[in-house]
Amino acid sequence: MTTSILSDRINAAAIRFLERQGYKIIDPAWDIAEGQTGIVADDKGTLVFVETAASQAGSDMPAEDESDESRRASEGAVARWLATPQAAEFEDIPIRFDVIRVLVIGADRALLRHHIGRFGIAAC
User: Cβ neighbours of residue 80 under 8 Å, at least 6 residues apart?
Assistant: First the structure.
């Protein structure tokens, strides 16, 4: 499976998971960085920016990068999204960073881990 196809399938699985949890998807293809997308969702009045990553069977669950550099990069990507017309309706709303990591086990099976509040307490 190519990286692009895997990324699309992981993003679709993450969206289905979030919707089942009651999240409203705002932007299913948030542009985090060159070649990397995530999901923007509303979780009961909190704007949630979700980064997704995956690995194939035989590998470990993808690791989370909790470095200051990673946090700055995430905050920069959020600031760029908030400057778009799509974000105009969101004012005075809490923001949270989440991570969904997926370990692909087979063609139709995966282990999904949702880390709510990636950097600790909700920001902004």
Answer: 31
| β-strands 46-56, 95-106 pairing | parallel
Instruction: Show the 3-state SS of the chain.
Output: CCHHHHHHHHHHHHHHHHHHCCCEEEEEEEEEECCEEEEEEEECCEEEEEEEEEEECCCCCCCCCCCHHHHHHHHHHHHHHHCCHHHCCCCCCCEEEEEEEEEEEECCEEEEEEECCCCCCCEC
Q: Give the predicted TM-score (pTM) of the model.
A: 0.81
**CATH class in words for 3-115:** alpha beta
73 CB burial (10 A radius; 0-12, 13-18, 19+):
middle
CA angle 55, 50, 63 (to 5 degrees): 35
pLDDT band at 117 (very low <50, low <70, confident <90, very high): confident
Structure tokens at 80: 């760029």
